[in-house]
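Checked the freezer inventory, then went back to the computational side. Two predictions to log before the end of the day. The first one is the construct we discussed on Monday; recording sequence and C-alpha cells without edits.
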Amino acid sequence: MKTTTFLALVLMVASVAQADNWGQFRGPNFNGSTAEKNLPSKWSQTENVAWVADLPGASAATPIVWGDHVFVSTTDAKAKSLKSMCLDRKTGKILWSHEISKGLNRDSRSNYSAPTPATDGKHVVFFFGNGELITYDFAGKKLWGRNIQKDYGGFHFGWTFSTSPVLFDGRLYLQVLQRDVPVRQDESDGKKHDSFLLAMDPATGKELFRHVRPSKAKAESREAFTTPTPVSLNGRKELLVVGGDAISGHDLDSGKELWRWGTWNPSRIGHWRLVPSPVVGQDVVLVCAPKRDPIYAIKTGGSGQLGDKAIAWTSKETRDLTSDVPTPAFADGDFFILSDVRKSLSRVDPKSGKAKWTMRTPGTFKYEASPLVADGKVYIVNFVGDVIVVNTADGKIISENWMDKPADDPVRSSVIASQGQLFIRVNQKLFCIGKK
C-alpha cells in the first residue's frame, strides 16, 4: 500500500472515531461538550459554509444530529403552526416535514417550539410547549403521539412552557414543574395540579411511571423551564431535576427521589423561576439561582434531605459567576459559565469555584443560548446571531461571526457540533458550517 493511501486511510479512520452524534439538549454527554475535533474557528454567511437551509419560523430549540439526519423543531410563521422537520446532513435538503398543530405561543417572549427534540438513533421525539409530544422513525413515519396537557391536566405557567424530552437507557423522560394553581383564571379546570417526572416507552408512548415531585416553593418559584439531566454518580445512575426551590436526584426505574437539596431560598422568594439545567463535573452538581443570584456547587453522593454541609462552594463573593438563562458547560475538567445578566464568560475550577479566566462578552446584545465547548473552543451566540469563538485556554476571542440581522424574535438556539461540522440556527435559517 502506498504511503499516501495509508495516511489517507488513517486520517479517515481518525475522523470517523472523532465524530459524535448530537442527539438531544446539551449533547452526547449532557453537559454542552463533545469530543469532536478540527471544528471551524472562523466563517461567514458564505465562507466555510457547507449549506444553508431556509426555515419557516423562529425557535429556541437547537437542531439535533444523528448520522446523516438533522432534526429540527420549528414554528411556521405564515401558517401560524408548529412543525417537525428532518434534513439531510450532507446537503441540507428537507427529507420530511409535518405540521403538528396550530398556534404559536401564549406570550410575546417565546413560542411553543422552544424545546429541543431528542433521538436515540431509532426514535426521534418532538415536544412542544402546548403539550404535544410526537415520535417518528427516521423515515418520518409517526409512531405515536400524546398531548401531556390533555392526559395530565393543563399547564400552570406564567410564560410559555418549555422543557426538552430526554432519551436515556431505553426510556423517554419528561418533567413538568409548575404552579399548583392556575396563573390565569380562564385556564382553570378546577383541579390542583402537581409537578411531576414522567417516564415513557419511546416505542409506544406508554407510561412507565409518573412520580409526583413535591415543592415548598411559592408562586412563580414553582415554575421551571429546565431539562432533567441523566448522570452516573459513584456508580449509581440517576436523573437530576432542578426547580421549585430544590434540586433532586431520582431513580431511573421508578422516579423515586434519592436525595434533595434546597437551602438557597429560605425566605421563599416568589419570583425564582428556573431556566438553567443542572450540570455535573468533578463530583459536584452546579445549580444556578435565577436573576443575579449565586451559583451553588452541591457535592454528589448524598442521600435523603441534604443541608448546607452538602454545599461544596458558592459564587456569592464572585460577581461574574451567575446565570439566569444559559446552562453552564463542563469540558476539559472545568466548568464554563456564561452569564447573560453579567455579560461574562468564565472558566471555573470545579473544586474551588475560582475562575481561571473571565472575559466580557462583546457587543450590547444578550447571550441566552447555552455555550458549546469543543476542540479547545467555546462557541456562544447572542440575540442577533453573532457567534463568538473563544479560546478555552486563555479566554481570548478567536473570531466573531455575524450570522443574522436583528429581528423581533431573538436568537436563543445554541450552536451544536457533530460529524466535524457546526450547526447554527438563527431565526429563519439553519447553517451547516465546515467542509461539505
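The second is the one RB wanted added to the comparison set:
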Amino acid sequence: MVANYRCNEIKDESLETINEDIVTLNKESNTKVLSDFESKCTTIVKKAITNYDEQAGQYQQAVYKKVQKEMIAHIFSQLFLCFDAQLKMLR
C-alpha cells in the first residue's frame, strides 16, 4: 500500500518535470517540421524515466513496474499530439 502510494506520487513528480518540455514541443510541432523530433521525444521520455527510476526503484518491483508502465503510457499519449501535429505538417 505504501509502495503504491509513493510510486504514484513519484510518477506525478516525474511527469511534472517534463510538463514544460512537452508544452514546448507541442508548440514547436504545430508551427514547423522538426528534423530532430525523435531525439526530442526520446530526451523527454528518458528524463521522466530516469527521475522515476532513481526515486522509486527501491519499492516493491511489481508496484514499481506497474506505475512505471502507467507513466510511460501517459507520456506517449501526450507525445502523440505532437506526433499528430508533425504528421499534419508533412502532408
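For RB: The mean pLDDT is 97. The chain has three helices and no strands. Let me know if you want it refolded.
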